[in-house]
Amino acid sequence: MDYVIPEPDRPSVAVAGQQARWPVRRIFCVGRNYAAHAREMGKDPDREPPFFFTKPADAVVEADATVPYPPQTQDLQFEAELVVAIGTGGRDIPEDRALDHVWGYACGNDLTRRDLQQVAKDMGRPWDWGKAFDGSAVIGPVHEVARVGHLQSGSITLTQSGEVRQRGDLADMIWSVPEVIAILSQSMALVPGDLVMTGTPAGVGPTLAGDVLEVAIDGLGKLRTTIGAPL
């Protein structure tokens, strides 16, 4: 097919143990999916229906990259997350079949311009400027389910230049991975290549140029990112 401008490159991330890569189609994110994090954000952690926001596929940053401190913010924050890679699409997926649609899992870091997000919240506006900026979706290699199994529990941590800032367990999610997939698929069809960032435990906080952030999830290794100087 011919296009009037050059076709953009397809965003992708590494796959653990393979040269082939994971093509990124869409990135869905679950908001406030750990009770302790909901409380630290001033919200009630009761099981209200989950809500979602998105990041553009080309916001992806791979492991060991340096992410420039983004513009228009004085409060860039880290959020360690489990990422789910959708390998089989579907709509209205039953919860008891949801894991059949998962190809693999990865470590992620949902970088957030918290001050811009807070302004959007206060004014009832979308979160895009706080969540969906360039370099905001740090995602490590995808580990195939056939190799690591389905992750229902296990430690998730984030260290900031060697100091532990976030520590939780995947079992602490308010909405489990099968529940998230089932609920999300009621609103739109999931498609192979979609990624779902499943929320962050308590302890989110600001980061500065020069910081080294490291997300670790049991069974998935570590995801290291350096925050660079502003562009």
Short description:
The protein has 231 residues and is an alpha+beta fold. It has helices at residues 35-40, 114-123, 128-131, 145-148, 177-187, and strands spanning 12-13, 22-23, 27-30, 52-55, 60-61, 66-68, 76-78, 80-86, 102-110, 112-113, 137-139, 143-144, 155-160, 163-169, 195-197, 205-206, 212-217, 221-228. Strands 3, 4, 5, 8, 9, 11, 12 and 15 form an eight-stranded mixed sheet that branches.
What does it look like?
This protein is an alpha+beta fold and about 230 residues long. About 15% of the residues lie in helices and about 30% in strands. It contains five helices and 18 strands. The strands form four sheets. Strands 3, 4, 5, 8, 9, 11, 12 and 15 form an eight-stranded mixed β-sheet that branches. The protein is globular, with a radius of gyration of 17 Å.
Whole-angstrom Rg: 17 Å
Describe the largest sheet: 8 strands, mixed
Can you give the helix content as a percent range?
A: 10-25%
The percent range for strand residues is 25-35%
**Extended strand count:** 18
